[in-house]
Amino acid sequence: MNTTIDSLTLDVPDVDAARSFYARAFDLGDRLHFRTADAETSGFRGFTLSLVVSQPANVHALIDAAVAAGATVIKPVSKSLWGVGGTIQAPDGTIWKVATSAKKDTAAPSRTVDEIILLLGAADVVASKTFYADRGIPVGKSFGRSYVQFDTGSGPIGLGLYRHASLAKDAGVPAEGSGSHRITVNGVLGAAVDPDGFVWAPVAVTA
């Protein structure tokens, strides 16, 4: 059975530099691809990527590795009611959140990632949910016009929708932005563009 999302392709100014950064920071293997692109973009790109891990020590390990590799801290690692997390921006501009729902460590620190989640900022969550549901991606959880989590099966990358302004607030950046999202989603939709301009492709685009 095909998974919903096989991998993601990031448009970056320097493919070799991006490969080096992500290998040192997160080591996500073939779940990330890179392509040189000169598409104009400014401000918030309308999406975030989250790395879900099993314990706080792993959050620190991944954030520390990313910063050492050249990332910028947007939100330092901190505790909250839901768990522990922090947010960084990669040198290519992509915003990454690393989080766990666990409050305590149960093992030695590692950079093991349990799940990658792509959150897309939607101008109209209901309309975007309908777009994906009509194309065969089942809804797992839905909270009205605020948030949708899709059931992406056993695939390596999860998919969710969040109101654009709310997603920017959660990321810790201004909501304003324009131009290319600089990401392509490689998965079951094949060649498609969703209501918010996010591009899907049938196979990974590699440099």
Looking at the chains present, what oligomeric state does this protein adopt? single chain
Poorly predicted regions are none
* Through-space gap between termini: 27 Å
Count of DSSP H/I helices: 4
Strand order of the largest sheet: 5-6-7-4-8-11-10-9
Number of separate strands: 15
Biggest sheet, in brief? 8 strands, mixed
The SSE order reads EHEEEHEEEEHEEEHEEEE
Mean pLDDT: 94
- CATH architecture assignment: Roll
CATH fold-level topology: 2,3-Dihydroxybiphenyl 1,2-Dioxygenase, domain 1
Strand content: 35-45%
CATH domain class: Alpha Beta
Count up the domains.
1
**CATH H level, superfamily name:** 2,3-Dihydroxybiphenyl 1,2-Dioxygenase, domain 1
**Class from helix and strand fractions:** alpha/beta
Helix content: 10-25%
What best-fitting shape do the alpha-carbon axes yield?
globular
Q: What is the CA-atom radius of gyration, in angstroms?
A: 16 Å
Quick take:
The protein is α/β, with parallel strands linked by helices. It has 4 helices and 15 strands.
Overview of this protein structure:
There is one protein chain. The protein is α/β, with parallel strands linked by helices and 207 residues long. It has one domain (5-201): 2,3-Dihydroxybiphenyl 1,2-Dioxygenase, domain 1. 21% of the residues lie in helices and 38% in strands. It has four helices and 15 strands. It has helices at residues 15-25, 56-69, 125-134, 164-171, and strands spanning 5-12, 32-36, 41-43, 47-52, 72-79, 84-89, 95-100, 115-122, 139-143, 147-150, 157-163, 177-179, 183-187, 192-193, 199-201. The strands form three sheets. It has an eight-stranded mixed beta sheet. A hairpin with a 6-residue loop joins strand 10 (147-150) and strand 11. Helix 1 packs antiparallel against helix 2. It starts with a strand and ends in a 6-residue tail after the last strand. The relative contact order is 0.25.
